[in-house]
């Protein structure tokens, strides 16, 4: 009976997410016409630039302190482990399914990056309010649960935009470069084709969105091609040292992506929460500038329902299908809903055994749940930026989020049994 009670408790928050997602999909239907594609993009932009940063900043500012950060030090490590293990498993999926080159980054990203913010911000508060929850007083559970979820969202945003963003971009560019390499041309025709390519790119993606240098080859470059290798042969090998390799790495990465709005909101929240003088000015009923914190919190409250509706609208695209391999979708589902949760149990239980994680059932539950979440929705935004696997991403999101209702309910029940 206890297991049945936990199963019901775990199913309620997942059902809430499913209902709002279904509403978003219904509103996005052509015959309904309330939530067309342009509206989805505009609402997604508002969530990305306004709601999410406000949510992250306000929650971190009000709940994170220097003492709590010391206790929560393992969470960034835990999330990093999810990305590393997910990437390894994604690489295995690529070896078995042999997808096109431009989808490699998408597969690695979907396998590595889970929805570490929004899903937790919906599931954890709902679990705290349910009867039979093993996490104690609902108010205390809610306060700490929002702190854990906000920190997870902030760290996840940093990893997502520093890692997934760049592997999708490098994968997309590598695919284009491989096509060009197969058809060598003269220098004059190459310059002409590059100018034509730049002209054809401009209407697809405004330069104001991605301020790339005119010569993108160094910016996106992967290991040296054959022609580049001949040029480097004349350079003494001693110059190809650590600094040279680091320079090549930084040219590949777009460090500006680290400063996505959610990341900026996280930095602001950490500054306010960790500096006592600023915290006393903004946080608390007697704070002179508490209206700023209240306004940010009020804005952040709109993030969860708005983004969940956007998820529903975007998932509708996946119903159209793309003819992609079913084995690829199945592989990602197995990685995210079977392999990662099992590995997560070993990682978190090992960390508890060696005293690296505090004996807080809610904190341990959040660490475990980070291994069982569906792929991050921002991966769809990243694929849109580079035009690499947009339709395939929609199909992956459709099936992973459709099965998330079953998977999250099952694993939430198992995780609550483990931490209770």
Explain what this protein looks like in three dimensions:
The chain is mainly α and 420 residues long. The chain contains 19 helices and no strands. It has a single domain (2-175, 255-419), classed as Up-down Bundle (Na+/H+ antiporter like fold), CATH 1.20.1530. The longest helix has 44 residues, at 138-181. The two termini are 15 Å apart.
Note the main attributes of this structure.
globular, single chain, 420 residues, Na+/H+ antiporter like fold, mainly alpha
The top-level CATH class is Mainly Alpha
Assembly state here?
Answer: single chain
| Count of the domains | 1
Question: Can you name the CATH architecture?
Answer: Up-down Bundle
Computed CA radius of gyration, to the nearest angstrom:
23 Å
Provide the β-strand percentage band: under 5%
Subcellular location: Endoplasmic reticulum membrane
Keywords: Auxin signaling pathway, Endoplasmic reticulum, Membrane, Transmembrane, Transmembrane helix, Transport
Family: Belongs to the auxin efflux carrier (TC 2.A.69.2) family.
InterPro entries: Mem_transp_PIN-like (IPR004776), PILS1/3/4/5/7 (IPR045033)
């Amino acid at each position: 009976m206890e297991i049945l009670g936990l199963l019901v408790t775990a199913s309620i928050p997942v059902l809430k997410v499913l209902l709002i997602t279904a509403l978003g999909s219904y509103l996005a239907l052509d015959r309904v016409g309330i939530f067309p594609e342009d509206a989805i993009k505009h609402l997604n932009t508002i969530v990305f630039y306004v709601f999410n940063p406000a949510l992250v900043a306000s929650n971190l500012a009000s709940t994170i302190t220097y003492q709590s950060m010391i206790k929560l030090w393992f969470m960034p490590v835990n999330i990093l482990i999810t990305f590393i293990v997910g990437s390894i498993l994604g690489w295995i999926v690529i070896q078995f399914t042999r997808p096109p080159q431009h989808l490699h980054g998408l597969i690695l990203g979907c396998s590595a990056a889970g929805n570490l913010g929004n899903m937790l911000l919906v599931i954890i508060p709902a679990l705290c309010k349910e009867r039979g929850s093993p996490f104690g007083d609902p108010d205390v559970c809610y306060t700490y649960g929002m702190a854990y979820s906000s920190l997870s969202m902030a760290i996840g945003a940093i990893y997502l935009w520093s890692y997934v963003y760049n592997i999708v971009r490098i994968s997309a560019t590598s695919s284009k470069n491989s096509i060009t390499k197969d058809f060598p041309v003269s220098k004059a025709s190459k310059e002409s084709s590059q100018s034509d390519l730049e002209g054809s790119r401009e209407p697809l993606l405004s330069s104001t969105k991605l301020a790339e240098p005119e010569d993108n080859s160094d910016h996106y470059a992967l290991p040296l091609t054959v022609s580049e290798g001949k040029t480097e042969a004349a350079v003494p090998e001693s110059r190809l040292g650590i600094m040279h390799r680091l320079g090549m790495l930084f040219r590949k990465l777009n460090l500006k992506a680290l400063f996505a709005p959610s990341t900026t909101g996280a930095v602001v929240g950490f500054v306010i929460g960790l500096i006592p003088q600023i915290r006393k000015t903004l946080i608390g009923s007697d704070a002179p500038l508490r209206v700023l914190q209240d306004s940010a919190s009020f804005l952040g409250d709109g993030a969860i329902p708005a983004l969940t509706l956007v998820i529903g609208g975007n998932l509708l695209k996946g119903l159209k299908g793309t003819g992609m391999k079913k084995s690829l979708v199945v592989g990602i589902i197995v990685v995210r809903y079977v392999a990662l949760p099992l590995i997560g149990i070993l990682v978190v239980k090992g960390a508890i055994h060696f005293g690296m994680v505090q004996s807080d059932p809610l904190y341990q539950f959040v660490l475990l749940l980070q291994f069982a979440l569906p792929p991050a929705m921002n991966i769809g935004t990243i694929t849109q930026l580079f035009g690499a696997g947009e339709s395939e991403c929609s199909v992956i999101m459709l099936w992973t989020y459709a099965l998330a209702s079953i998977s999250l309910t099952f694993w939430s029940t198992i995780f609550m049994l483990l931490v209770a």
